[in-house]
Amino acid sequence: MTTTAPRRRHLDRVRWWTYLLLVLATVACLFPLYWMFIVATTDTATATRMPPEVVPGGNFLHLAGLVMETVPFVQALLNSLAVATAIGIGQAVLCSLAGFAFAKLRFPGRNALFLVVVLTMTVPTQLSVIPQYLIMSELGWVDTLQALIVPGLASAFGIFWMRQHISATISDELMQAARIDGASTGQVFWRIAFPIVRPAAFVLGLFGFVTAWNDFLWPFIVLKSPERYTAQIAIKALQNSYDVDLGLAMSGSFLATVPLVVLFVLVGRRMVAGILEGAFKG
Questions:
Q1: Over the stretch 55-91, which tens digit does the pLDDT of each residue have?
Q2: CA separation, residue 242 to residues 238, 239, 245 (Å)
Q3: Where is the ABC transmembrane type-1 domain (predicted)?
Q4: Can you give the pTM of this predicted structure?
Q5: CATH architecture of 62-281
Q6: What are the tens digits of pLDDT across the range 109-141?
Q7: Could you tell me which of 39, 34, 31, 35 has the C-alpha nearest to residue 248?
Q8: Spatial separation of the C-alpha atoms in residues 189 and 14, rounded to whole Å
């Protein structure tokens, strides 16, 4: 009894500090979103007022209406949804296929090719903009959504992620048993491998979705027509060259952030479970 009581008090102190740090981290993460909403419900002067406002105003619907009048924002949200969904699904499937090939298939140059894939992660994204734009121009895809979708359907990080996960979760004995039963390589992947690594593929698809939704540089370069703008380019179009209406810009930013918040609320628990499963198995 004398030894367990101090140990229990020590655990209570650790738990108290842990919860305090978690609360502070949560507040630090949510405050920018809350401040964005405050400015989006008031005006530009609120962002520079001292002391700052902490209570939302009642101007959000008016500013949201101005956003819709200034740019085709609903169409931009739909474009972002289409692009991000296609990229998320594409990365989940194609990176799983490539990861399966690198992890479980034997073919000449496998290790060298995988090394090349990994090395591409060290190349800054900005260096690929010019050759990528030239390729899109040759294909006639400039100012089209497929110019955003096709280059993002697979990623070096996604291939590396799925290769490591498949290597750790799928045993060679399981594949040999499937081969003995007469399963082809495609059947082994779709009926055995992919159902096992589906949580990791789901998390990778979510990462791809969020990255594509928030992407600005490449859409800003390749898109020209307002009806093909994505959400991030539409937000940029709300700002002119000489003055920035922060209330208008924050309203557009908040409208573009809401779908991501809804997505996280719907699938956040599954995403965390997929990450933890990959961490424990890896």
A1: 777 788 888 888 888 889 999 999 999 999 999 999 9
A2: 12, 8, 10
A3: 77-267
A4: 0.84
A5: Orthogonal Bundle (1.10)
A6: 899 999 999 999 988 888 889 999 999 999 999
A7: 39
A8: 45
